[in-house]
Amino acid sequence: MKENKPIRDESFRDSIATVNQEGNREYVFPKKPKGKLHNYRLIVSWILLAIFFGMPFVKMNGDPLFLIDVINRKFIFFGQIFWPQDTYLFAVMMLTLIVFIVVFTVSFGRLWCGWTCPQTIFMEMVFRKIEYLIDGDAPKQRKLAKGSWTFEKIWKRIVKYSIFALVAYLIALTLFAWVIGLESLVEMLGEPISENSAAITGLIVLTGFLLFIYSWFREQVCLILCPYGRLQGVLLDKNSILVAYDYVRGEIRGSQKKGENRKEAGKGDCVDCRACVQVCPTAIDIRNGTQLECVNCTACIDACNHVMKRVGLPKGLIRFDSERGISTGAKLKLNARLIAYTSVLVVLFTFLSFLFFSRSDVETTVLRTPGLLFQKHDNNRISNLYNIKVVNKRRVDFPIEIKLLSHDGEILVPAGDMIVKSATFTEGVFFVYLNEDDVHGKIPIELGIFTGDELIEEIEITFVGSN
Ligand code: SF4
Ligand code: SF4
C-alpha cells in the first residue's frame, strides 16, 4: 500500500555532502546540466554577464553610468552622482533593500541564488563551462582527478588553470573599473607599477582570491560563507516557492522494471535513478526535502523531467512549488498572499525609485561663522558673517547669487562672484547687513540661493543683533 507521507529519516541533516566522515572536503563533480530551464538560465546569465563586463564602458554625460568609488566617496547610479551628503538616502535604500529581500525570499524562495547571484553565475555559467570543455563531463573529471599525473592530466590542468586565472583577472579588472572608473584603470595600467603599487597589489590579490574561490572553494561559498544562505531557515515557510520534490507522487521510490505497472507494484513515480543528485552542484538529494544547501539552480528539475519523459511519466516530479502545494496537491497559482507580497515589492521599488530620482542636485549649508559677534556699522546697520558650502551634484559649473528673501538688507561676498564647480563642493563666506531697527536679539531670516533667475534653494538662518 502506497504511503503519501514525507520522508521521516532526517539523518542527512547531520552532515553535509561535501565533507566526508574524516572531516575532509569531498570535491563535487556535478553532471553537465541540460534542459529547458538550463537554457533559460543561460540566457539570463549571458544578459547579466554582458551587463557586468559592459557597464564600465557605458557613459552618460561623460561619466560612467555606474561608479562605486569608495576611495573618493563618489557614487554614480544610473548617471546620478551621489555624495557622502546623500548618506541618509543610502540608509533608507539599505533598509528598503532588507525589507525587499525578506519579502522576496518569503514569497519566491532562493530564486536570486540560482538565477542571478554573481557567485552562481560565474561558477556555473563561466568556470564550470570551461571545465566541462577541457576535462569533459563528471565521470571524466572524476577519473582525471583520481588518476596519476599523466601527460593528459598535466596539459589539461595547465590549460584549465591558465584560463581560470585569465578569467579571474578579467573579473578583477572589471570590478576595478566599476570602482575607480575605466579611464583611471587604463591610466593606472599604462603607468609604471611602482607608481600604483598598492592598486596593482590589490588587483593581484583579488585575482588570486577569485581563482581560489572558483577553482577550489566553489559551492562552499553558498554553504558556509553566504549570510543570505544562512537566513533561509528563518525566511522560508510552507508557502514559499522553492525547487521541491513531490514526495506525495514520488514515494515509494523504486527502479522501473520492464513492463511493470508502478501503481500495481505499490511504487510512486520516482524511479530512484539519482539523476537529480548527480547534477546537483551542492551534491544534495532534493528528495530529502528543503535543505540549506539548495541554491534553487533547477538543474535537478531538468534532469528529472528528462527521466520522466524517458519512462513515460508526467514531468514535474521535481518542480517549483511550495511545501503546502506538494502536501495538498493544490496547483501553484497566483494566490492572495503572493499578490499581496508582490504588491509590497512593487511599492518598495517605486518608493526607492522616487527617493533616487527626486533628491535635490544642489545642497547648500549655511552656518554663522563660529566665534564672531555681530558688528555695528554706519547708517544704523548691523552685520553677521556666515560660512557657506554648496555641493553641486550637477555636471556643469554654475554661478550662484545669495539674496535676502525675508528682509530688506544687503549681502556682501568678499571673494566676489561664487562659481560652484561641477560634481564637487565649493566653500566661501558672506556678510548679511540688516537695519538695526529690524533686529531684536536672535531673529530668523530667509535666504535664496539663485543661479541666474532660477531659485535653487531657500534656506532659513539665524541673524544675531543686540537686545
Ligand atoms: S537540489 Fe536541485 S535546485 Fe537545489 S542546488 Fe541541487 S540541483 Fe540545484
Ligand atoms: S531524477 Fe527524478 S526519478 Fe530520478 S531519482 Fe531524482 S526524483 Fe527520482
Q: Which ligands appear in the coordinates?
A: iron/sulfur cluster
What's the number of structural domains? 2
The unreliable regions are: 1-7
Distance between the termini: 98 Å
Kindly state the percentage of residues in helix.
40-55%
- The shape is elongated
User: Largest beta sheet, briefly?
Assistant: 5 strands, antiparallel
Q: Structural class of the secondary elements? A: alpha+beta
Radius of gyration: 32 Å
* Average pLDDT metric: 88
DSSP summary, beta strand count: 16
Question: Would you kindly provide a written description of the structure presented here, covering whatever features stand out?
Answer:
- There is one protein chain.
- The chain is an alpha+beta fold and 467 residues long.
- The protein folds into two domains: 1-359, no CATH class; 362-464, Immunoglobulin-like (Sandwich).
- Helices cover 42% and strands 19% of the residues.
- It contains 15 helices and 16 strands.
- Strand 3 and strand 4 form a beta hairpin.
- It is elongated, with a radius of gyration of 32 Å.
- Mean pLDDT is 88; it is low at 1-7.
